[in-house]
Amino acid sequence: MLRGSRLPLWPWVLLLLPPPPLAGALEPRGRARPEEAAEEPGSGRARPAFQDLQEQLRAAIALTRRYWALFTCRVWPETCGQDGKSPLAWSLPLLGQQYLDILTTWYCSFQDCCPSGDCRISNNLTGLQRDLSVRLHGQHLARELVLTTVRDYLALPRPDKALALSFHGWSGTGKNFVAQMLAENLYRDGLRSDCVKVFVTMLHFPHPRLVGLYKEQLLDQVRETQERCRQTLFVFDEAEKLHPALLEALGSHLERQAPENHRAESPRTIFLFLCNLGGSAVNQVVLELLRAGRPREEVTMEHVEPRLRAELAASPDSGFGRSRLVKENLIDLFVPFLPLEYRHVRLCARDAFLSRGLPHTEETLDEITGTMVYVPKEEPRFSAQGCKSIAQRISYFLP
Ligand SMILES: *[C@@H]1O[C@H](CO)[C@@H](O)[C@H](O)[C@H]1NC(C)=O
Known about the structure:
This protein is α/β, with parallel strands linked by helices and 399 residues long. The protein has helices spanning 9-16, 22-26, 34-39, 51-75, 94-108, 125-134, 140-155, 175-186, 201-204, 211-228, 244-254, 279-291, 301-314, 324-327, 342-355, 362-370, 390-393, and strands at residues 163-168, 196-200, 231-237, 268-275, 333-336, 374-375, 382-383.
């Protein structure tokens, strides 16, 4: 990873120094400051016989102090100034930044150095709340349920069970979007994190005859990821198409663990199952309410959940509804994603322009929103594809 020949002197100087004890590093005047450590009399690195080397080291260490400040600031954010900035307002050249990244990753690979105890895990609930309320449209139930359930789960000191959520709704209503928001706010590297795994049924497990092999691979991947990270996220897209044997195999991961199985560091696992199944039941509930002249925000879990469960149980061609995940209540929460109306799709179109930094007019937004198909035929209310493909459609409307 480190390409030695091209490294300047300072990272090596830093590597030679003993890592500071955490308590020392938390104090600005901690005793393991690099310059003090290196200037200790009798230290093998600064013998009088090597005057030149000593001079060079001094120079390097002076530079290192600055890097050191930035490094400790990354690794122990508490040591930074009030405003979250480094004590030395000094911007690194790009190359220095890269070395700092390498060093931080290296250090954090064997040290607990972030508030979460692992720099890969960010658990930014403020960010999650913000994303759910600003970027997700028309989903008052999902917004509330996902935030509170995840927040409560992450607050448990010793969870005895993985958290399992299943998202139900038509395509384009935001199920993938919310899964992505969770990955981005709970993990520094989002969906690319080594703590996050996404499985798409038709992509990862396409052939029913290979299900034995898939099962082994799936369980291996789950285990390996859990060994690597003490907080993991597994996303199963197209969960309604998962083979019953795979669902069965996942069941053991969702069961409550006996207390003696608890590891000291209390690992946390979140499973998300994204399912188109159940979408019709959800849509029907919303449609009935709208027909009665009520706003969709009045839809509650009491309205939706029984109908959703009934649709899952009644679907003959999907293993999900009849798997032990559903039957034995291993799913902690069914999250309904409501069908989107014209005004929601319009917001998606606006977001698409804003996120690409492109100008737009109210007329353009209306035009794009108008290109979507709305159902049911006799009283078109819901976008058949939700907000799917809106981002691509804006290309046709650019000036
Ligand atoms: C959490 O997310 C918010 C909003 O996206 C962001 O402003 C903030 O910097 C994030 N906090 C951390 C610690 O990353």
